[in-house]
Amino acid sequence: MTVITTTGPICRQCGAPLSLTLVDLGLSPLANSYVPPEQAGQTDPRYPLHARVCEECWLVQVDDVVPAEEIFSTGYAYFSSFSDSWLAHCKAYCDKMTAELTLGPDSLVIEIASNDGYLLQYFVEKGIPVLGIEPSGNVAEVAIAKGVPTVVEFFTTDLARRLVAEGKRPDLIASANVLAHVPDINDFVGGIAALLTGDAVYTVEFPHLLNLINEVQFDTIYHEHYSYLSLVAVERIFAKAGLRVFEVEQLPTHGGSLRVFGCLKAARHLERPGLALVRAAEQAAKLDRADGYAGFTVRVEALRNGLQDFLNGAKRAGKTVVAYGAAAKGNTLLNYAGVGTDLVAFCVDKNPAKQNMLLPGNHIPVRGVEALRAARPDYVLILPWNIRAEVIAQLADLGAAGTKFVTAVPEIRIS
Ligand SMILES: [Zn+2]
After folding, report:
1. Interval between CA 112 and ligand 1 midpoint (Å)
2. Residue 116 Cα, ligand 1 centroid: separation in angstroms?
3. pLDDT by residue (tens digit) across 354-375?
4. Pairing of strands 109-112, 130-133
5. Which of 198, 251, 252 is nearest to 260 (CA)?
6. pLDDT tens digits along 279-296
7. What is the pLDDT of residues 142-158, one digit of tens each?
8. Which of 211, 264, 326, 400 keeps 20 to 30 A from 386, CA to CA?
9. Sheet holding 172-176, edge to edge
10. Is 191 helix (H, G, I), strand (E, B) or coil?
11. Furthest C-alpha separation in the chain
């Protein structure tokens, strides 16, 4: 008998030892912990940021080194409702699901990580009962004020059982961009299974690992983002909880996401063609083998070198560079590339909660978008590259006056 012992990291999904690295990004500050100006003189804590691949269940994950309380402390400033394209995406989802599941006044739609009610508000407009679940008190208050009832808690199997005891049996559970953020993914999916009955549907959206790898989206790796999900990994997690996938849609959001439709194993939903398509794409990319993950580190290093060359060249030429979008992904990128205020003068963001703060680690100041128009920089480095076209359209007046727009992922692109 062979006894395997390990002192190294183990998979949070299946417990297997993790020996395969996707990329090791070294020490990085928490990407969503914006720094108040009075703390400018302090050094932000940095934690190892190392993405590994489980060769048993193919869940890609970062080492669990930061307590959740620290990650989701009062500094957590994300309000979903600030991107126009995201709101359009949410409204289209609401229309589609209302028609497909014939939702009405006797239905119930639950969203997990409902934020400020950005999605559920569209169901409320149609007279469909909703319940939001959102752990951040300050954003939940905004949702409640706009008529979206919200439970201020992390979603767990325990909370799901309490909701069931109160008679809450949803026809639809939605979650977007949260499954990757939960440290105990089995408990989360177990809670979904506890809430579902009959043919009720769970839809979950997450950035697709296949796009992360193909498009070198390494900047979407940060501590708050525990898992990087493929369909192959999600199908295994679902199966463990008594769920199955019956459809998958490919979405353009966040640089290429999947919307996975799940149900109880015994539900009547037939498998639809989108499921087979994505399974085949992942098999072709070898995401169920170590080969699919090889070479990523080298591509990340090349991207970093490209950004450093561009910024150093701009500085030597006396050009000004301002960043647009104080997004978490930008913080991974800037900190990994060692970019500070000597290379990027300041960053602008539409979200008032981030304005007048400093970016974590590099302490680049965040201002309102109007500061960009006052500064008229030579280059605007768009950190959330997934909304590049939207930002360029918003800043068309600057573009007409000679400002150039730059994104760094998957490689430096200037236009
Ligand atoms: Zn595993």
Report:
1. 24
2. 33
3. 999 999 999 999 999 999 999 9
4. parallel
5. 251
6. 999 999 999 999 999 999
7. 999 999 999 999 999 99
8. 400
9. 150-151, 130-133, 109-112, 172-176, 201-207, 257-264, 243-251
10. helix
11. 73
Q: d(Cα 274, Cα 114) in Å, to the nearest integer?
A: 26
Cα–Cα distance, 183 to 71 (Å, whole number)? 11
Tokens 């062979």 sit on residue = 2
Contact 307, 412 (CB under 8 A): yes
Q: Contact 385/368 with Cβ under 8 angstroms? A: no
Structure tokens at 120: 């559920």
Distance (Å, rounded) from C-alpha 359 to C-alpha 366? 7
Per-residue confidence band for 48, with pLDDT thresholds at 50, 70 and 90: very high
First-to-last alpha carbon distance for the chain, in angstroms, is: 62
Is the model's pTM score more than 0.85?
yes
What amino acid is encoded at 122 in this protein?
A: Y
180 CA distance to ligand 1 centroid (A)? Answer: 14
Q: Give 352 Cα–ligand 1 centroid separation in angstroms.
A: 40
Report the separation in Å between the CA atom of 58 and the middle of ligand 1, taken as the mean of its atom positions. Answer: 6
